[in-house]
Amino acid sequence: MNHSLLDLVGNTPLVQAQKLIQNPNVKLYFKMEGHNPGGSVKDRAAFNMINEALKRGEINKDTQLIEPTSGNTGIALAMIASVFGLSIELVMPENATKERVQTMRAYGAKVRLTSSDVGIEGARDYVEEKVKAGGYYMFNQFANEDNWKAHYKTTGPEIWQATAGKVTHFVSSMGTTGTIMGTSTYLKEQNEAIQLVGVQPTDDSKIPGIRKWPKAYLPKIFNPSKVDQIIEVSEDEARVMAKRLAKEEGIFSGMSSGGATAAALKLCETLDEGMVVSIICDRGDRYLSSDLFD
User: Fold this and answer.
1) Residue 249's CB: how many other CB atoms inside 10 A?
2) What's the predicted TM-score (pTM) here?
3) Any known ligand binding at 179?
């Protein structure tokens, strides 16, 4: 039984919605990404980005890694860097929850906080300046093909197998867009008819993990032709649904999972029949110091 922690990344369970869904002709399943060892869907991309860069010889134990993050990717990179014995600096806005910062530091990462006024875009700019000045290697999750390929290799095949090919719709929050790009590419190869649904916040909403990027910051890995439909959700809808998930389904997760679930339920109401799979991105204990569950 010589298992590495890295063997635990992926193969997360699918759980069927029991109470939230109102349409009797549609089955809704949640892909439980909080079951990854680092507690979120980002373990998949972090492992693939680090592993592939090591294989190509782009990085080694002497490389100073740096990456901007709003949270889950940073935790995943910190965890996987610790397993490989790599040093990493993570840069995030100062309004990130305390748990995120503490978790990254616990894994041995250096954490730098940037002004919350400029958000994740400011953290991205800071890192790009450091990389330009030399001496740092950035994975750049927003433009890194190994981000979406992680989901092409794992998330897509897992959903296809677990639903015995019966999945009709896949719903995913869009941040870096890696999850939806990779899963879409795989599922469309199996069955063109499967609908890929992206979730974005309404214009005035701030939902951690779900973004509507300004054009200059749009992830380079994003290909709009791989998304069939975009459903917008408000911050209020995402908050309410995160609480309902915990109270009614026993699923404790963050606001982006609430947003994806709100979108999935809107979708389910419009369908005559189908099997919908929606991503539960992470676990709710990352948000206890925020006001999400107050």
Assistant:
1) 19
2) 0.96
3) yes
Catalytic positions, written as ranges? 42, 256
Query: Which among 111, 19, 11, 9 has a CA at the least distance from the CA of 66?
Result: 111
Name which of 43, 47, 16 is nearest 31 in CA terms: 16
Determine the Cα–Cα distance for residues 211 and 142; give it in Å rounded to an integer: 12
* 26-32/64-68 β-pairing: unpaired
- Binding site annotation covers 177? yes
Q: What is the pLDDT of residues 67-114, one digit of tens each?
A: 999 889 999 999 999 999 999 999 999 988 899 999 999 999 999 999
Q: How far is residue 97's CA from residue 289's CA, in Å, rounded to a whole number?
A: 6
Residues near 64 by Cβ (< 8 Å), separated by ≥ 6? 87, 89, 135, 136, 137
pLDDT at 215: 87
Task: Quickly list H helices, the chain.
Answer: 42-55, 72-84, 98-106, 119-133, 145-153, 155-162, 178-190, 235-244, 255-270
256 carries a ligand binding annotation? yes
Number of other residues whose CB lies within 10 A of the CB of residue 162:
17
The answer to whether 72 is annotated as binding is yes
- Give 3-state DSSP helix, strand, coil % of the chain, rounded to 5: 45, 20, 35
Question: For residue 164, what pLDDT band results from cuts at 50, 70 and 90?
Answer: very high
Give the separation between CA 232 and CA 65, rounded to whole angstroms.
Answer: 35
CA distance 172 to 148: 13
SS3 201: strand
Q: What SS3 state is found at 106?
A: helix
